[in-house]
Amino acid sequence: MIRVEHLAKTYSNGPTVLTDVNTEIKRGEIISIIGPSGTGKSTFLRCLNLLEKPSDGKIWINEQDILDPKSDVNALRRKMGMVFQSFNLFEHMTVLGNLTIGPIKLLNASKEQAETRARELLKMVGLAAKENSFPDELSGGQQQRVAIARCLSMNPEIILFDEPTSALDPTMVSEVLSVIRTLAQEGMTMAIVTHEMKFARDVSTRIFYMDEGIIYEEGTPEEIFENPKREKTRAFIHRIRSFVYHIENNDYDFYDLQSKIEGFGAKHFFQAQEINNIQLIVEEIMQLCLKEGDVQERTETFNKSGGLELTLEYSEASSGVTINFIADKSLKTILNQTENSDGLSLAIISAMTDDLKETVVDDKVRLSMGLKR
Ligand code: ADP
User: Can you tell me which atom of ligand 1 is nearest the CA of 193?
Assistant: First the structure.
């Protein structure tokens, strides 16, 4: 139904937001578009219905090239309804007026036809009793339901939702999402920019994660939410907050490192004992790297290898904390537990962590473990 190739958008005097978006949306699909703010999700939707002019690329709707100057843009646009964050209702018209003006003016419907259809739609969105109200007499959730009904009154083939619940009081989010769910069950094709992850997961046939100017990763809700393949998707889905500290050589500032760990832990409300445990684990690993066995040889190897990167990852979604040590492969034997004779350090580390594992990727070795909480 919609095909997009190499879509790019740079705002005049503004940022390059989209660099190379490629996709196809089929009839009946429900696509949720997720990703951090400012990654062009809204711009992408607005390019689809030409509210923004793409800088480059091609868009076909039902095999018609919509950027071809010969295309009837208005007719194409009518096939695509759009629901905005801020409702955009006509304030001076009643609810019924809002729903009938489009069909009467643009679809040549008679007043009776338009009103009959409007009442059906109002019933569907639960607002049959409000046809004579003005928008400012309605709550935000009700106004957004009117906006959805108004959009449906034009018989669109696809509806684009641009963060339809983000301007709403939290108590009103679910009434709007329920209406969108009903449309989904009826088979309406939809593309929805949303921050409501649970909703996106339940309702969508496919998820686009946008970042870096492209559809960075796409997949079924299960693929994206259970098993995201790429680093940024993973960080976004698990709402991972991370802390990185580079230990360059054996003269690193031990107290600075310990206090930064404490700061990161405090910021994310770790318990004092958990912060202590992380500090102790880091200290033990550094012991293994630098202080055990043939001290001088180890220190030299360590310093020559470029040191070690410590990352702490805290997932707001699962509350899990992962501790990673990433170093040059030449430190593998130092990090490698089996080759280490010091049972005590390892016993301490294993008592405080789960899932201790070492992996080698390219020329780096990564030792990672989950903190027991
Ligand atoms: P998202 O929907 O992912 O939050 P947007 O598409 O709204 O992202 O915005 C992407 C970037 O484009 C932002 O940096 C935003 O400031 C910029 N932007 C959006 N609209 C305009 C505009 N009309 N003119 C200039 N810059 C814009």
Answer: 2
